[in-house]
């Protein structure tokens, strides 16, 4: 019977249809109801079996609507790519903010203060998360990299532009991975005209940029917050301090002075530090492979938290 908007839409659609029948136990066990449910199953409809329990009418038995989380899990499994593992399927529908690349702080209309970040690590993470079915927002500083397929990219130049975009997306996000190399300082008063070369010394007065990661940590509700620490000395000490001060769940630490690690390379060498004091070390491998490892560790982190 298709005599309303919902049932006529279901009759017309070519998409998979999932049903979750819920009713009084006697109704559910009625021979005609069971026959109709089996007819739908044989036609390819996906049926979530009801739970046993107390219902609104006061009776107990099969027919209770499953918990919303159980229904969502079934939907997640339905839309997950084939052969996807449980930890990969968990990312389906999760909103993830990834920041990547370096920022540029203007000196004048021609020059800027920047860094050597290529954005390759952040882009690899965004690409891997999108393949797992996540809703990825990539907030990127200037790079020469193509936007990963299935990713919503937002281009920025300065640290302040990145801060505004990230804070806008943050309340509705589940995971934030701050892989960008954000400038710590900016020119206090950038020149509106190109500064001409002269024999005199040029002095630039710098002021601190906002600490985006620390601000996110102070606002954190149920988000998983992951930071990066690119260092050239005392790697573990600096990364641990950052992890604690910025209220992170994980931090990816790497010594950018090592061959095959850091900026403008296709490989990286990392250590992952966790809030509970655990540390894991990974040998040199491609940033694509490390992206998968980082996502797996985020899943494990979530399992421990919740």
Kindly provide the radius of gyration, computed on alpha-carbon positions and rounded to a whole number of angstroms: 26 Å
Q: Please provide the count of β strands.
A: 16
Question: What distance separates the N and C termini?
Answer: 43 Å
Strand order of the largest sheet: 9-8-5-10-13-14-15-16
**Unreliable parts:** none
- The overall pLDDT average reads 92
Summarize the biggest pleated sheet: 8 strands, mixed
Number of helices, counting only DSSP H or I runs of 4 residues or more: 10
Global shape: elongated
Structural class call reads alpha/beta
Report strand %. Answer: 15-25%
Order of helices and strands: HEHHEEEHHEEEHEEHEEEHEHEEEH
Percent helix, as a range, is: 25-40%
Question: How would you portray this structure in words?
Answer:
- With 306 residues, this protein is of the alpha/beta class.
- It has helices spanning 5-12, 25-29, 31-42, 68-79, 86-89, 120-131, 159-169, 212-219, 235-245, 287-305; strands at 18-19, 46-47, 51-54, 60-64, 95-100, 105-106, 112-113, 135-140, 151-155, 175-178, 185-187, 206-208, 224-231, 250-255, 267-274, 279-286.
- The strands form five sheets. It has an eight-stranded mixed β-sheet, sandwiched between helices. It has a two-stranded parallel sheet with strand order 1-2.
- A hairpin with a 5-residue loop joins strand 3 and strand 4.
- The longest helix has 19 residues, at 287-305.
- The protein is elongated and about 95 Å long.
- The mean pLDDT is 92.
